[in-house]
Amino acid sequence: MGIKVLFIYPAPFRITGIPIGLASLTAVLKKEGCQVKIFDTTFYRDVERSQAEIRAERLMSKEIKNEDFILPENPGELQDDLIQEIDFYKPDLIGISILETMYGQSQQICSYIKHYNSEIPIIAGGVFPTLSPDKVIQNDHIDIVCLGEGETALPELCRRISLNMPYEDVEGLWVKKDGLQYKNKPSKLHDINKLPFPDFSEFDSRLFMKPMQGRMYKMVNIETSRGCYYNCTYCAAPQLRIFFKKNECGRYDRDMSIDKIIEQIDYQIEEHNPEFIYFSSENFLSLNEDAFNRFVTAYEDICIPFWIQTRIETITEERISDLLNIGMHWMTIGLEHGNENFRKTILKRHYTNEMFIERMNILKKYDIGASLNNIIGFPFETRELIFDTININREIFKNNNKIESNVFLFTPFESCELHRVCKENGLIDNISYATLHDMREQSLLNFSPEFHEDLQGIIRTFNLYVKLPEEYFPEICIAEKSTKEGNEMLKKLSELIK
To answer: 250 in a domain, yes or no?
Structure first.
């Protein structure tokens, strides 16, 4: 085909890791003869502090002392560099990958492009355009919306552009042309075992660097599955599963064969020589017994430490022991909330605290560290319910001080069931996409002023409550306040833990 495609990856400042979706599309388009370049926003400072700095302040992870050296920010202005890239590369098509948190920045970027050159078509894809296509297609600066995974629709769009053929009827695309909108049905989902390996070669090399335990390591992301079969109400996965089923696109949650996983690992090691492997699939240990045993046997010869994320229900002593023996170094696990009834009825996560603690004790037995994810500021939550989450984190940390407790404020994404719940209960109005940010300190929900103050205080002291003895609680309560006295107390108590 021979056309030139420029992918834009809007990302928060210094949030590294190469996105598997764009890397897969890059590989597919190159296989079809396209040229591909990537422009990402990761190293343009648009905030005062990086998320790594905020995480360290909240005692969620160790401070990275050499972040400025390893991940230097870009010296130029994003808009100038983007226009210069377009002027030099002269793409035939521009694609932009959009998450809801980055929609504000994405709109601005598309505006820059159209003001410079209104002739280059812009296609938007990703979770947000898939589940909110009516909103995205209304954007004056976006010409095409891709619904679902783009490995089928995008090559066909590029083929049509290269042949100067109309593309209003391409399956998987919504297209604006001559004042009309052409809304085609989503394309079928791919067998992920038949896709080429994700191509990381066009990405900024700094994106390989990921923080862990206060150090930066060169990591490659390895995909072992796509989709998720759980129904968490704060996550987009259940809505995506419904979307693909309704449109008869095929099964959303799909596993990659062990042979393909190992081939992919060998390929990326040969290409990029990583220090670490990060298995980015949402529930790594959902592998069945035969697949898991085959993975363990095959990985023994790879000898590179790795990091997984999984669900607590999938953890067993036998599997943890086997993974430790072949190089597992770290895990990420979601607790999300510490009150069993709230977690079951509001979040649709069905496990007991007793079971959660028992499984976490397996990590203690094998001296495995983990990041434990928690969310506060859900609809119908109270200060007392938040302390149920704090208390279970305290119990887990008391047994295993290698646990890092992450805490985030709930975001009512449009693509999640809880967005509807918040809307129906008057907890959200129209949210400005410029305000969405994973590490913010202000809830977007219409809570009382008193509960907003509680949330702002607890988000900055969460790990003080988790890691310090109870006799410090009165001082931590002082540290919740953003006053001179509170800030001094916060600094004093944080130093105790550091």
So the answer is: yes
Residue with tokens 């399956």: 171
| Residue carrying structure tokens 């990041």 | 371
Q: What is the number of structural domains in the chain?
A: 2
**Domain with 88 in it:** 4-183
In a domain, 390, yes or no: yes
Is 18 within 8 Å of 42 (Cβ atoms)? Answer: no
pLDDT, position 114: 97
**Which run of H or of E encompasses 226?**
strand 225-226
**In this structure, what token pair is assigned to residue 92?**
């035939």
Which residues lie across from 182 on neighbouring strands? 175
pLDDT digits (tens, 9 = 90+) for 172-219: 999 999 999 999 999 999 999 999 999 999 999 999 999 888 889 999
Task: Please state, in angstroms and rounded to a whole number, the distance separating the CA atoms of residues 207 and 202.
Answer: 11
User: What pLDDT, on the 0 to 100 scale, is given for residue 66?
Assistant: 85
Q: What is the predicted pLDDT for the residue at 435?
A: 63
The 10s digit of each residue's pLDDT in 111-159 is: 999 999 999 999 999 999 999 999 999 999 999 999 999 999 999 999 9
Report how far residue 205's alpha carbon sits from residue 16's, in angstroms, rounded to the nearest whole number.
Answer: 10
